Amino acid sequence: GENVEQHPSTLSVQEGDSAVIKCTYSDSASNYFPWYKQELGKRPQLIIDIRSNVGEKKDQRIAVTLNKTAKHFSLHITETQPEDSAVYFCAARVGSGGYNKLIFGAGTRLAVHP
Amino acid sequence: EPEVTQTPSHQVTQMGQEVILRCVPISNHLYFYWYRQILGQKVEFLVSFYNNEISEKSEIFDDQFSVERPDGSNFTLKIRSTKLEDSAMYFCASSDLRGETQTGRLMKEQYFGPGTRLTVT
Description:
By secondary structure, chain A is mainly beta. Helices cover 0% and strands 57% of the residues of chain A. By secondary structure, chain B is an all-beta fold. Chain B has strands at residues 5-7, 10-13, 19-24, 31-37, 43-50, 53-57, 65-68, 75-79, 88-95, 111-112, 116-120. In chain B, strands 2, 4, 5, 6, 9, 10 and 11 form a 7-stranded mixed β-sheet that branches. The A-B interface holds A 31-32, 34, 36, 42-46, 49, 51, 89, 91, 93, 95, 98-107 and B 31, 33, 35, 41-45, 48, 50, 55-56, 58, 91, 95, 98-100, 106-107, 109-115.
């Protein structure tokens, strides 16, 4: 069935280090992969996304890579800062014929220590 | 920047009662969604809605759930007879394109509202 696996579930890094979160998806027809950042008690906020016709996308300290063959996509945060601490969710758009539901991974709790 | 809004922010109800969660999507958006997030768990898709009808619904969205767009601005989720396991954060989302078309137009992101925390006692 439709599924997105996300690893690790928790990630602890020192300020300035890099953080990498990995996801795999099951539906080979998925063509859009957003990443959301969720701070405690707040809404998920889109931080970066990638379409299936692109292998990599970068926005300042954040980058996302996509390997369609392996059905993997990853989030890379460089030069982490304490304010990067949050739960990060990957997602994959699933369906065809115009349906546009997002299937989310289980989330990664990132802690950046000063 | 326009935002999706939701009311109330927190709803406490007794088991068996009906609740209506309200959302105001971004005004020029055409596609609307409800998701839920049980405390500490992942965000789960409930239902998508377009052109005044449900496009798709998940297994969670059973007969106790319904959605409606009663006017030009509101989008509601009703739970007819709440159960303890309905306690969760409910997020409304909206987007202005449903997906890539055959011409290759890019899909727009889904914008999430701040959520309604539903507590069923």
